[in-house]
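Entry 14. Structure prediction run on the chain below.
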Amino acid sequence: MKWLSKLYVCLIIFFLYAPVAVMVLFSFNSAESVWVFEGFSLDWYKSLLFDATMLNALKHTLIIAVLSAIISTVLGTAAAVGIEALKNRIAKKAVMTVTNIPMMNADIVTGISLMLLFVFIGKLIGLHESLGFFTVLIAHITFNLPYVILSVLPKLKQTDSHLPEAALDLGCTPIQAFFKVVLPSISTGIATGMIMAFTLSLDDFVISYFTCGHYQTLPIVIYNMTKKTVTPDTYALSTLIFASVFLLLVLYNALQTKAEKRRG
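Output returned:
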């Protein structure tokens, strides 16, 4: 039965990565064909430099991803510290349940509900355009927060509670004790939470689609292109994004391994 389990694993890997491999291969195709590979070329990567629509959408995506990752990491870390400080078990479970709702909820439900909220508030305060940059940013922060909190909480639980107390006894203020003792011990969780938030924000489509207005991100632009024809320069850009996310995942795993070694 070992050969059957190996075959099963190979089939899973094949169906997961074969489409990516085809996309990477055809991003180097010298022709515009999406089914006949005529030769290696970097022409489609060069054409990206002159595609204003694609570059503008990429800029929007990176701005949203970086800002949402930073803000959600700061807020998520503060929230994790507050949750860990709760003494009442019922209150802690209630807060964790509310925190997990954006993760368990369907993206389309989250996107529609946020859109309705933003439109309602926009009409209430008299805005001409309710949806735009800030609504996308708030939406991305909203669904990134639970992932950051769940990345930081385990590190807080592993931190010796007597260390901050010792820092206070040695003359530190509570804020100094947090930044000098607690923060370094949970830095791995903070870094992994930020990386996860960045990658989730980078490729989000559903929630961005309902909250973007005229501020379109890269996944939305690519989706609009599929209604007509997807050009090979889209494969080149997707390959670059895949490579970037892959490197971030390698960094994420390296941080996790480092944390496990420290724990050991």
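Residues 7 and 38 are 32 Å apart (CA to CA).
Filed with the rest of this week's runs.
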